[in-house]
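Batch manifest, entry 17 of 40.
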Amino acid sequence: MRKTTKQLQMQVASNQKLVMVTCYDATFARLVEKADVDMILIGDSLGMVIQGHEHTIPVTLDEMIYHCRAVARGSSTPHLVGDLPFGSYQGSTDTAVENAFRLMKEGNVQSVKLEGGAQWTPLIKRLTTAGVPVVGHLGLTPQSVHQLGGYRIQGRDEETASQLKKDALALQEAGCFAIVFEGVPATLAAEITQMLAVPTIGIGAGAACDGQVLVLYDLIGLDERFNPKFLKKYAQLHENVVD
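Output type: structure tokens
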């Protein structure tokens, strides 16, 4: 039986941290499950990790569904979150809802994740009303890499920090059951975590979030070129593979 949104929220309410790992296939999903991970994110980061693109934008909905199905087949207890890729929800609300339905029905995930702030609250309300659990994503939003001018820390100045707080409250009010914060100053992430009633999951956002997420390929050191400051590598498997 997979963990539900309510079980995840109750875990945080009882002061237990959430562990989320990103993977994209059945083999890694089996390993993640044996490690008692709470949530698996099938992320559109597969565009970079699996497909070799420079960013996540080329990933299609059909590709996301393919990888979500693979992870679902390899696991049975972690809560599965599937990314809605770029272009699958930024158009009409009706199309976005249909795409979210596809990701859940064909990809066998229990919730979807989308990037962005208060501008997406009408869509989030529509999705949650229709029975689609939603995880929000604020801060450094990779699908907006061209708009942001690169992979830059967000919320360093008073204006953007204030906007992040407003966006977080708006996402919570719209019905998100959890929110990912990526590339946000630790002090700001800690402050927002205290403000919210829903769990926060950090990546490059300090240790005060209610949970943490890393890409499995990164945390076991399969790519020696990827070394951001926030990444803790628990192994250097690229050396073992080459040897």
